[in-house]
């Protein structure tokens, strides 16, 4: 089997930036890499993403939201992640089930147990070998996003919601320290990259 790495953290924590650097680093070492993002990564999952993040769908219920994220994930697992791991590739995914645990389970208040139960159907027994969690406070993360592009439905949530996301990530990272690496997102892009490569080198060697 290959190696499955997921990148987690609040909006604007630097996940996409770090994934690009990690991909270049691992490609440079000759590894076969697949990068994907959630929700998305397949034609169907990207179509579901358009529904989930549409800023006009403010009436979306919590259960609909949870199931749409899980549906996008199920398709990505089947079409991309499992086949790539079988071919011994390194898969790096921008967000995974911990995003549902934090955003839907904690910030929306649906309960973490329900999230893992529902997502069991989407992911089966394919779990990440390493989850990197970049920690950033809500104000910094959202202000970085505002400078980048128009905010989507989730990013338009209240600052209170984003604060719950931040504390939710801290809670989950504290619960599973053996498989989650928590990194201070206020450090420089290069410093964070070095912490990530040190952890990744350990698991792929
Ligand atoms: P995410 O994918 O987690 O939402 P991005 O990687 O898109 O975050 O980063 C959001 C913005 O913050 C980008 O403009 C990026 O250049 C900037 N950024 C990323 N990491 C850092 C960092 N460590 N320090 C300062 N700015 C950063
Ligand atoms: P994305 O665009 O990757 O966020 P970012 O702004 O960090 O680049 O992700 C879209 C949004 O979806 C983001 O606000 C987090 C949210 N999300 C959930 O609420 N649950 C989930 O299971 C996933 C994968 C994402």
UniProtKB/TrEMBL annotation:
Q: Where does ATP bind?
A: 9-16
What InterPro entries does the annotation carry?
P-loop_NTPase, Thymidylate_kin-like_dom, Thymidylate_kin_CS, Thymidylate_kinase
Q: What is its EC number?
A: 2.7.4.9
Organism lineage string = Bacteria, Bacillati, Bacillota, Clostridia, Lachnospirales
Q: State what protein this is by name.
A: Thymidylate kinase
Judging by the UniProt lineage, the source's domain of life is Bacteria
| Gene Ontology annotations of biological process type | dTDP biosynthetic process; dTTP biosynthetic process; dUDP biosynthetic process
Q: Would I find Secreted among this entry's keywords?
A: no
The record's Gene Ontology cellular component field reads: cytosol
* Function, as annotated: Phosphorylation of dTMP to form dTDP in both de novo and salvage pathways of dTTP synthesis.
Give me the gene this protein comes from.
tmk
- Every Thymidylate kinase-like domain range: 8-196
Q: Which reactions appear under catalytic activity for this entry?
A: dTMP + ATP = dTDP + ADP
């Amino acid at each position: 089997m290959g190696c499955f790495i997921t990148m987690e953290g609040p909006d604007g924590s630097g996940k996409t930036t770090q994934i690009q650097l990690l991909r270049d680093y691992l490609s440079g070492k000759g590894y076969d890499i697949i990068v994907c993002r959630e929700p998305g990564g397949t034609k169907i999952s990207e179509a579901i993403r358009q529904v989930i993040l549409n800023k006009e769908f403010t009436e979306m219920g919590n259960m609909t939201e949870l199931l749409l994220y899980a549906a996008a994930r199920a398709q990505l697992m089947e079409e991309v992640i499992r086949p790539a791991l079988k071919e011994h590739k390194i898969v790096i995914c921008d967000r995974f089930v911990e995003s549902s645990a934090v955003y839907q389970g904690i910030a929306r208040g649906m309960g973490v147990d329900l999230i893992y139960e529902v997502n069991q159907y989407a992911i089966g027994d394919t779990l990440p070998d390493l989850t990197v969690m970049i920690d950033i406070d809500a104000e910094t993360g959202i202000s970085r996003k505002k400078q980048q592009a128009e905010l989507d439905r989730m990013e338009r949530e209240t600052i209170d919601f984003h604060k719950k996301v931040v504390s939710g990530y801290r809670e989950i990272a504290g619960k599973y320290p053996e498989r989650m690496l928590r990194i201070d997102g206020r450090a420089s892009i290069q410093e964070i990259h070095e912490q990530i490569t040190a952890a990744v080198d350990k698991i792929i060697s």
